[in-house]
Write a structure and sequence with these properties.
Layout: E1 2-4, E2 14-20, H1 33-42, E3 52-59, E4 62-72, H2 78-95, E5 101-106, H3 112-125, E6 143-147, H4 153-175, H5 183-197, E7 200-204, H6 206-211, H7 215-221, E8 229-236, E9 244-255, H8 275-290, E10 295-305, E11 317-319, E12 325-327, H9 335-348, E13 351-358, H10 362-368, E14 372-377, H11 380-392, E15 396-399, H12 404-408, E16 417-418, H13 426-435, E17 444-448, E18 454-455, E19 465-466, H14 471-480
Parallel strand pairs: 1-6, 2-4, 2-5, 5-6, 9-10, 9-13, 12-16, 13-17, 14-15
Antiparallel strand pairs: 3-4, 7-8, 8-10, 11-12, 14-17, 18-19
Helix pairs in contact: 2-3, 3-4, 4-8, 5-8, 7-9, 8-14, 9-13, 11-14
């Protein structure tokens, strides 16, 4: 994707205009302005939010395509609208499988925020996962040139491309079948890019975790032939004397439910249960490539939850790395057990603040739907920062209360804490369980991304499957910190 300050002669096969309803009267000033004005008069809803109007015109002896992308009014959530609509445009143009080049213009003044949103949407909207396909009949995304006079436009687009490249990488990881991506393979992938970016990288094997007495993650992984890995990356962009903020991710590369086996319907989708780990690793990779002046740590507990004669069982009591014991009520509530050791380890490694991300509970989908992540925290000021960062990049969060009566349900009979407390308040109790393993007085935010981490259908800049949700929020937060 490129930018240019002036409109060149007709070299592209497609021209895209983002049209705001406020700017209809000034359309004649645009290149092809008279043609667009007439088209808008004929197509009354062409500036309606999300409406795509396609027309053809003759230029330099060729028939070329014109796409009018209605954005409605930009008075409210303008960047979010533009990101979403740009994604729809990109997917629509890729669907004809012809590729080519497109020139992008707007009927309104491009601000840095608007330019970034359009660039992100155009990059993300045409994503498709093709690694396991043998046919060559793949969509061919357009190459976009955004026309603007905005200062430093090229730099803004380059930053957007770094972010979206890594979001698409996380989508690849989430979409990849679990026989292609299991803990050892995931760790090797991370080692490769860590070496390239000169990040501090530690991969704990089963033996290493046994020495550190990480009984929680080891219990979840003991039923699988693929041994778990604890991945820790550190990026030091702010100097040795500055504290780390830790991003901690649930990396269950496949979740069968273990002995508490899930139903067969939809179990194949459980390859996506490492979306939290993918997000934190994609975020630190992006932060390093952007060379942001902040110290960040990413900790990913990677494991498979499988049934076998070696599996942990309901009724077992396991000892976490913190020393606190966990009474297992349900082996399908495994993600919080993995995170028990992971958040504790992040604190041990010097994290001053902790954010954990996990595709944790179906209850969160029931409460908040498919587009919004649930939030729990022990520090509202910190969670407000996270939620505000998400709003700026179009990712939605909702703060849930840390209810005392739900916390009481965690009290176990045999061990210290129960890993599952039943249906009522399920998202809250899962988050409060994780908090039990965060060191006292450490600001902590829990993000349950079970809904938005995976899309059932293409919508806006989301494509079906993994969305890479959370990466943009963490990167935006790092920029602000």
């Amino acid at each position: 994707m490129k930018t240019k300050e002036t409109v060149s002669p007709e070299k592209t096969k497609t021209r895209v205009y983002f049209l705001a309803s406020e700017d209809v009267k000034s359309l004649a000033k645009l290149p092809l302005g008279n043609f667009i004005t007439k088209l808008v008069q004929e197509e009354k809803e062409s500036t309606k939010e999300g409406k795509l109007t396609v027309a053809f015109y003759q230029g330099q002896g060729q028939i070329k395509k014109l796409v009018l992308a209605g954005v409605g009014s930009l008075q409210t959530d303008g960047a979010t609208k533009l990101r979403t609509i740009a994604g729809t445009v990109a997917r629509t143009l890729a669907a004809d499988k012809t590729g080519g080049k497109a020139e992008v213009l707007t009927s309104f003044v491009l601000t840095p925020e608007y330019l970034t949103a359009i660039a992100q949407g155009l990059s993300l909207g045409s994503y498709s996962y093709r690694e396991c396909k043998t046919d060559k009949d793949a969509p061919k995304p357009c190459e976009y040139t955004i026309v603007t006079t905005l200062p430093k436009a090229g730099h803004l687009v380059k930053q957007a491309e770094i972010l979206t490249k890594n979001i698409c990488l996380v989508r690849d990881w989430v979409n990849r079948p679990s026989n292609y991506l299991y803990p050892e393979v995931f760790a090797n992938i991370v080692q490769d890019f860590a070496k390239e970016l000169k990040l501090s990288c530690e991969i704990l094997t089963k033996k290493d975790m046994e020495k550190k007495k990480m009984g929680a993650i080891l219990a979840v992984g003991q039923g699988s032939v693929h041994e778990p890995r604890m991945i820790t990356l550190k990026y030091q962009g702010a100097g040795k004397d500055q504290p780390y903020i830790a991003f901690v991710g649930k990396g269950v590369c496949f979740d069968s439910g273990g002995i508490s086996l899930k139903s067969g319907q939809g179990m194949g989708d459980m390859k996506d249960d490492m979306g939290g780990a993918g997000a934190v690793l994609g975020a630190i990779k992006t932060i390093a490539e952007l060379k942001l002046p902040v110290n960040v740590m990413a900790v990913a507990g990677c494991v498979e939850n499988m049934p076998s004669g070696h599996s942990y069982k309901p009724g077992d009591v396991i000892t976490s790395a913190s020393g606190k014991t966990i009474e297992v009520a349900n082996t399908d509530a495994e993600g919080r057990i993995v995170l028990a050791d992971a958040v504790w380890y992040a604190c041990e490694e010097g994290a001053a603040k902790v954010i954990d991300l996990a595709t944790l509970t179906g209850a969160c989908l029931v409460a908040l739907g498919m587009h919004t992540a649930g939030v729990l925290t022990n520090n509202k000021e910190f969670s407000d920062q996270v939620i505000a960062a998400g709003k700026k990049v179009g990712e939605s969060y909702w703060l849930l209360p840390s209810l005392p009566d739900v916390r009481k349900l965690l009290k176990a009979t045999t061990g210290d804490v129960l890993n599952e407390t039943g249906r009522w308040g399920g998202t809250i109790s899962a988050g409060l369980f994780i908090e039990e393993f965060v060191k006292p007085h450490t600001p902590w935010v829990h993000l349950d991304i079970a809904g938005p981490a995976n899309a059932e259908k293409a919508e806006g800049y989301w494509t079906r499957g993994g969305t890479g949700f959370g990466v943009a929020t963490l990167v935006q937060l790092a920029k602000e910190l």
